[in-house]
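Record format v2
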Amino acid sequence: MAVAFLLAILFITIIVVYLFLAHPWWFPAGASSIAATVDGHFKVAFLLVGILFVSGQLLLAASLLSSRQKRSQKNLTPSGNKPNLSGNWRLEALWTVGITCLFVWFNASGERLWSEITVRDLNAEKIEIEVTGTQFQWYFRYPGADGAFGRTDPQRWAKPDEGNPLGMDPNDDAGRDDIVSTTLMLPQGRDIDFTLKAFDVIHSMFIPAMRFKQDTVPGMIGHAHFRPTEAGSYEMVCSQLCGLGHYRMRATVKVVSEQDFKRWLNSMAQPKETTAQ
Amino acid sequence: MAQLDGTTEGNHGTIIYVSEDFPSTAQTKPLQALRRYIFSTDHKMIGLQYFFLSLAAVLVGSFLSLLMRIHLTWPDAALPIVGHIKPENYLAYLTMHGTLMVFFVLSTAPLSGFGNYFLPLQLGSSEMAFPRLNLLGFWITFLALLILLSAFFIPGGASLAGWTQYAPLSAIASSGPGQGQGTTLWLVSIGLFCIASVLGAINFITTTLKKRTVGMRLLRMPLPCWTWFVAAILSLLAFSVLLAATIMLLLDRTAGTGFFVPSGLLVNGKPVPQGGGSALLWQHLFWFFGHPEVYIAVLPGLGITSHLLSVFSRKPVFGYKAMVGAILAIGVLGFAVWGHHMFVSGMDPYASFAFSGLTTAIAVPSAIKTFNWIGTIWGGKLRFTTPMLFSLGFVSLFITGGLSGPLLAQPALDMYLHDTYFVVGHFHLIMAMAGLFAVFAGTHFWFPKMFGRMMNERLGAAHFWITFIGAYAIFLPMHFLGIAGHPRRYSDLTSVHYVAALAPVHRFITWAAIITIGAQFIFLLNLFWSMFRGAKAGVNPWGCSTLEWTLCSPPPGNGFGDRAPVVYHGPYEYGVSGATTDFLMQDASATS
């Protein structure tokens, strides 16, 4: 049985190590300014945890072997055991201090990365976008030429069928040039400053390629930011259970050049001005 | 009932009682049977009642997970009886699976089941401190289970908000099917479960502190007693908070209060009248319970594993005091880490620094435990019995499942992995699988004491191997789904392109789940067959040193009777030098 257990442990360990090295299923290519740093830290984490995993499993397997060889050993008590096996404070302390140092270091490096990600040190050229999660659709609002968002009150004005899903106040001038889209269009290389909202239940904005996730919480105005660096089309999904249609609450994220972004903003602004009396 | 056999065993001076076989109803009148099997105040009977309640819950819970896997892999399949599984069915199964498994299986079997049966016996007591409170606790738990399951049979069906019931999804009836009566029933059920858990916890704590026999000093307690004791303290504190939270949420739903409902909501096209509450408040309260809950579920498993590794290695537990310290450290730290479930919830990112550091700190006592388990096995005379196999499996799963913890403890990494299948894989390995392995180990180990017969070793080994490989085959690939960005709780995998591309992995997991769940019938067969046909067990078939093995199998109704044992030794005196046998009973009077 010891051999069977040993083989099972070896089999599992080899499969795990192989899958992490070959990684047939892995992170999508990173497309934001933090992606490379986060991926780098993931590598460090997988390496550290991987070493502990392999040594832990191998030690467990070896402990079974140590039992098999035991009978030939000397220094046994009459009952067949080696003395002093009920503990070893020196080893215990060594292991505790060692593992503590390792995890303190690992945690400190993680905390540093977190402060890099969260500190809101955006350049003046940032783009402001308001993200609203609803059952089961994402809406992205751009402030338009005046740079200001109009007032919203979903309870009073929200009419998804009449082109006002967010409940924008029709009497607020700041809202007249606001652009509401169901595609998240982003200019490449610019800091994006997101305002996060929801007015029914909690949703979560998850863009794997940007290594970005943040909940949109009703009753709270959240903030988040990232800088898309690679042009392309990406998927954004909801990652907080929000009801029946949770699985289909997706949106497309398009990262385009600065000119294309401006062209798109203009094209979105045109029909709105013609329809508004 | 019990008569004194008068035999003493070797130099142990142990008195052995003999009772009739369990379960024998031949001569009992209906009223006596009612008092003995239904409204019993005997901790052993209550332990068995909890054990069988968990068994029923785990069967339903596993069946639901099977339905979920089938739906994910063959969404159009029409199953017999169940029919075609719709998205709302999937989410209801998911909610009920989580609730059944976390509350009625993982917090019930190891703590209320084994704990009720063996805490007094291991401490040398014939009863729990509050037998009638114990009776009440079980029947409230039973009622809670019935109420939970009844949600399947009402219009709208069971709640679909997940076992975490995040507000305001859970607070507003119009937020989806199952969010009406289904969620109300869920809250009533869990509220009752909280009350029962608090009653049980008070009983466990008092029993540990007050009912220890002469000489059973705290540091002579077997490690399962330590873990039941600490888990009970966590249970008392955590379930009280959840009880308050469920009452508040229930009031939000039925009395128009707005504890968790912010102002200005528009759900399903209709304005929500109440307001002024906070969605995050629910998460803080829930996880203040929810994280200690993880340790309530897994601590008894740690104790049972430590105990069994020592017994079947014929060696003392390596570093007993360090183990006790680690149990206490896990208990204390367990209350200070709930925020790691909320890194991307909108909680202030500064709080994440503290929660991240405290969470990583739990890796240290966990590492001490792993180190000591390997130290316990090292150089021992290993006996590869089924309980030993499951304990070794527990250690392997604990290492694997535990090591993804420090990753998830880092907000920057958790921002990506949160609410993906990586988390599902993580907690299923460390909490669900490791927890169940300890229950399987405990069942095979204590079965002779509980039922007077041995379980079949060959069936036990077959069950172990399929389940051990199966656990890895199901939950390891889930880590890769998470790394690829696959969110949890998706009832349909075709809407998002990169999720659809992961279908082959899902198919593999489903087949692994079908085989593994199928293999559980080996366990059921073994359990029920052995209960009536297994080989008769002696007083102490495994050669254990703790007090429950001084009583006959099964122990008489009045336990130790009026002859309370006197304890002279620690709980893990295996392979002691100078002794004639390779172990010393805790109550052996001969000095060494």
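Chain B has a mean pLDDT of 93.
Strands of chain B lie at 3-8, 15-18, 78-79, 83-84, 266-267, 270-271.
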